[in-house]
Design brief:
The complex is a heterodimer of chains A (368) and B (195). Chain A is α+β, with helices and mostly antiparallel strands. Chain A is 47% helix and 12% strand. Chain B has a single domain, classed as Beta Polymerase, domain 2. In chain B, strands 1-2-5-4-3 form a 5-stranded mixed beta sheet, with helices on one face. Classes of the chains: A alpha+beta (368), B alpha+beta (195). Chains A and B meet through helix 10, strand 6, strand 7, strand 8 and helix 14 of A and strand 1, strand 3, strand 4, strand 5 and helix 3 of B.
Chain lengths: 368, 195
């Protein structure tokens, strides 16, 4: 059969963000494929060098469009490590609440996203409706819906508004009550189960070869390799949660892990709301002027667990008011670029969007 | 762990017993930095990989134009002994060449490609390192170097346009506003009474 070139994306229901997968297909089997990023490159790393540490707080959330809070936290934690700054206890707990709400929001979006490639759009509408409620909560806390710019160096921008606990509890209860419905609609739905079961396998040796982290890795190696567990940041060592794992990584088991993480996040937020102490939420940075902070010399790599895996900021400061170099380690780098090139060939065309979706490839963080 | 050694101490022993370390820094219990000579990097990464640091987390470069050097950064991680090991080495800036670590960490392929694109560091041993990845038809020095000026580039690439101050109104009588006005006039006249 003749080999044919086929473009998947950037405008395609199965693609997330502005990247495209170039595939050479014979029939409907992919023979060669590679990801073509570059349509969304905004030069963040260069831009950060040209702005002060404070200006960068409004720049970094744009690195990953759907999950901005991980950027804020990784950047803030890195700068605090360089400064040797201890942030207030209440701020740590507020950061955790924000991070877990963000995780819920992105998991709902990603879970709804499999509605695109599998043709199950009802799932997408339900998930996005629930995500909208999280955005409402974010709007109350931070004043913004998508890019919050809430976690800053030295704590968080302002305290939680009064009565927000009630709204959060109300949302968590409603989401938890709909959990079984979500399972029935998605991964236990007989109409799509054939598409997601035993497809897009990710064996353990491939995980180590590519350097995949996050749900992709945990669903394959059967160990709780989660940054929150392995090297707890914030106060993750003071809350109880489990990391869902599996030893058979097909598309279905990865989605299953994702859904189970939703339950864990709900439990973490509930514990945070009980354990959160009173007190200040931000400490001023004593070095430099009030708007032009000076961060001492040094190299640091700060990591947080995003919904797709280990997300890190490599930062170099030369003791000035601007960062000398900031490098972003996008969590979807290995599976998005090398994974598509090496392990997508051999699968069918309609499985390609499932790889992109269940492995959590986020093109904005490849094109940063 | 069997003995009382912390993970950071384990790494320090492992690295120092094999390679001459130029500089060392411990950020916290999860992170340790080593600066080594350029020709020791592969040997050191090999040792770390065999000791369990099997994940390459990050690979990139930092530009130091005053010293006329590029600093390459390799960050590797071990999930069982959670310590980020950051290995840095300085290479010549005029002719930046560093052998690829592809045989040690296959995941480095695209990091090296990106590093070549943004800094111009060459990675012989990596078959694809010269292919373009993100920047399409780039015609300037690699953009992440410190001497690259984005402002000068954009004024050169996108020269300022001159706009004329006069404008022409096409088919005056048939413009949308005239139509709308006529419609309201007619509506008012139909309503009667009002002028």
């Amino acid at each position: 059969m003749r080999e044919m070139k086929l473009f998947l994306g950037p405008q395609h229901p199965g693609m997330h963000g502005n990247a495209s997968v170039h595939m050479y297909v014979e029939g409907d089997i992919i023979k060669r494929s590679f990801l073509l990023p570059g349509m969304l490159h905004r030069g963040f790393e260069k831009g950060m060098e040209r702005h002060s540490w404070m200006n960068n707080i409004s720049l970094i959330p744009r690195v990953c469009v759907v999950e901005p809070d991980i950027n804020e936290l990784a950047f803030a934690m890195g700068a605090e490590k360089l400064l040797g700054l201890e942030i207030p206890e209440r701020a740590q707990w507020i950061r955790m609440i924000i991070m877990e709400l963000a995780r819920l929001s992105i998991h709902l979006m990603a879970y709804g996203g499999i509605g695109g490639p599998t043709g199950n759009y009802t799932l997408m509408y339900h998930a996005h409706a629930d995500r909208n409620e999280i955005l409402d909560i974010f709007e109350q806390i931070t004043g913004m819906r998508v890019y919050h710019q809430y976690i800053v160096i030295g704590g968080v921008r302002k305290d939680l508004p009064e009565g927000i606990e009630k709204d959060i509890h109300k949302f968590l209860d409603s989401l938890e009550s709909r959990y079984d419905e979500y399972r029935d609609l998605g991964i236990d739905n007989p109409s799509i189960i054939k598409r997601i079961k035993d497809t897009i396998m990710l064996p353990e040796e491939v995980v180590w070869e590519l350097g995949v982290t996050g749900i992709g890795m945990r669903s394959s190696v059967n160990k709780p390799y989660d940054v929150r567990k392995v090297m707890p940041y914030c106060r993750y060592d003071q809350v109880e949660f489990e990391v869902p794992v599996s030893d058979y990584s097909d598309a279905r088991s990865r989605i299953d892990c994702k859904l189970k993480e939703i339950l864990q996040s709900i439990s973490i937020i509930r514990q945070c709301l009980v354990k959160i102490p009173e007190g200040p939420v931000r400490v001023p940075i004593s070095r430099g002027q009030s708007m032009r902070w000076v961060i001492p010399k040094g190299y640091v790599y700060s990591v947080v667990e995003s919904s797709r895996g280990e997300f890190g900021y490599f930062m170099v400061s030369d003791g000035g008011t601007n960062p000398y170099r900031v490098g972003v380690r996008g969590a979807s780098y290995p599976q998005g670029l090398l994974g598509v090139e090496k392990y997508m060939p051999g699968t069918r065309i309609d499985d390609a969007p499932l790889w992109i979706d269940t492995m959590g490839v986020c093109s904005p963080e490849i094109d940063r | 762990m069997t003995n009382s050694m912390t993970n950071v101490e384990f790494v320090q022993n492992l690295v120092k017993s094999n390679v001459k370390v130029l500089k060392e820094h411990v950020t916290d219990q999860y992170q340790v930095h080593f600066v080594v000579e350029q020709d020791k990097v592969h040997f050191l990464l090999n040792i770390l990989r065999n000791a369990g640091w099997i994940q390459l987390s990050y690979l990139s470069a930092v530009d130091w134009p005053e010293e006329n050097k590029f600093e390459l950064v390799y960050i590797v991680f071990n999930w069982d002994k959670p310590v980020y090991v950051q290995i840095r080495t300085k290479i010549d800036r005029e002719n930046p060449v560093m052998n690829s670590i592809l045989p040690i960490y296959p995941g480095c392929k695209y990091y090296e490609r990106e590093c070549h694109e943004f800094f111009g560091v060459k990675f012989p041993g990596n078959p694809d390192y010269e292919k373009q990845l993100i920047l399409e038809n780039w015609d300037d020095i690699p953009p992440m170097r410190k001497d690259f000026d984005p402002e000068a580039y954009s004024t050169r690439k996108f020269p300022q346009r001159e706009y004329s101050e006069t404008y022409i109104v096409q088919s005056e009588g048939k413009s949308k506003i005239a139509k709308m006005e006529a419609r309201t006039k007619r509506a008012e006249s139909l309503r009667g009474g009002k002028k």
